[in-house]
Amino acid sequence: MIATPKLYLIHVCRFDLSFLTAVPRETAPLLVIECQHTIIDVFIHYFTTLTESVIRSNFSTIYQILEEMVDGAFPYTTELNQLREMVIPPSLSNRVFQSVSGTFAVSDDVPNGVLSKIPWRKADCKYVTNEIYFDLIEQIDATFGPNNLLLHSTIYGEIKANARLSGMPDLTLSFTKPNLLSDVSLHRCVRINRYQREKIISFVPPDGVFKLLSYRINGNTNMPIYVKPTITYGTNGTGRVECQVGSKNVRDLPILDVVIIIPLTKHLISSTLTANCGSVRQDPKSKVVRWEIGKMPIDKTPQLDGGLVLPPDFKSDERPTVRAEFQVKMYCASGLKVDGLAIRGVKYKPFKGVRSLTQAGRFQLRA
Q1: Are the C-beta atoms of residues 126 and 108 closer than 8 Å to each other?
Q2: Cβ atoms of 328 and 248 closer than 8 Å
Q3: pLDDT of 303-357, one tens digit each?
Q4: 98 pLDDT band (50/70/90 cuts)?
Q5: Domain presence at residue 155
Q6: Where residue 36 sits, what CATH number does that domain have?
Q7: 126 in a structural domain
Q8: Can you say how many angstroms the Cα of residue 90 is from the centroid of all Cα atoms in its chain?
Q9: What is the DSSP letter of 356?
């Protein structure tokens, strides 16, 4: 937050874009930031991707969405289901109709959920095939010291749901280790009193895709990979880089999109780095080495090594911070699992499914 003589400027950065809100008086910054993230998530649902060109080409739709989401400088309509009924998502036919008629794609009717006790869900949902799926996504922030010693780890997770259910179902979701969760943020559809009492997620779901909850877990992390980097700078104008990567705790699950990023000193003259798998690239300006392994091989351990050429009088005892990127499908680093899903209020039995994904956040190693 930036304070000016007349305004408070609060911004968030997502998708290489900055979203700025000017507040005329002192306000809780987290309220504004949460509103900004909610607006961005709605844009993603409407336009799939969010870039500068997408914002320019859909400016009229974005203006209409903001008109409905914010009223009198306060958050007003934030439920995606209601917004989709009020502001029709853009399509080729809608754009042609608007350009010919000169009208906007805004409904004159009030959404049917506004006056309901459950405003986040439409009352007339009907599907031929009833199904609900959950995506359990976890991101690992970890810092390792020398000798691969874990200094700190935190898991940030969220559960996204895609509900295509007829009628008004009442769901109950339970976990095997609910006490692991902390700093839990629940969707408004969840009965918070029951969660606080029993650690059970009881809710009537919105229609379509929504984020059911987000959470944080400190420690208790089953790391899916290990990285052992060694970077040494000699006193005779030479240096050496060695790095080894391997999998652990994931059994037969594939580790995908593995990338190791190694920053070298800016005084580097040249280097000869080779790897037994993947590709190695070095930025000539920043001297950052990017080792793209891709899918972790099963038959060998990925290794990178090579020599460095430095100025003759170069001396340094700096310890570069190596970063790692990866993702593992059908794996949960915290050990959290869905124990069961019960449904009441309807006569059908829906298709159910749960997927897990673990990926690297700020995964750092001190060489």
Answers
A1: no
A2: no
A3: 999 998 888 888 777 778 999 999 999 998 888 888 889 999 889 899 999 999 9
A4: low
A5: yes
A6: 3.30.450.60
A7: no
A8: 25
A9: E
Residue 49 tokens read as 């991707």
Edge-to-edge strands of the sheet including 8-14?
2-3, 8-14, 17-23
Q: Look up tokens 């036919």; give the residue.
A: 93
- Please give the structure tokens belonging to residue 323: 């970063």
Query: How many CB atoms sit inside 10 A of residue 226's CB?
Result: 15
Q: What pTM does this model have?
A: 0.79
Measured CA to CA, the distance from residue 150 to residue 147 in angstroms comes to 9
The DSSP letter of residue 216 is E
- Kindly state whether residues 203 and 229 are assigned to the same domain: no
Range 209-222 average pLDDT: 86
Give Cα 117 to chain centroid, integer Å.
Answer: 31
Give the separation between CA 263 and CA 260, rounded to whole angstroms: 10
By DSSP bridging, strand 150-164 and strand 208-218 are: antiparallel
Number of domain units in the chain: 3
**pLDDT-based confidence at residue 158 (cuts at 50, 70, 90):** very high
Residue 271 falls within a domain, yes or no? Answer: yes
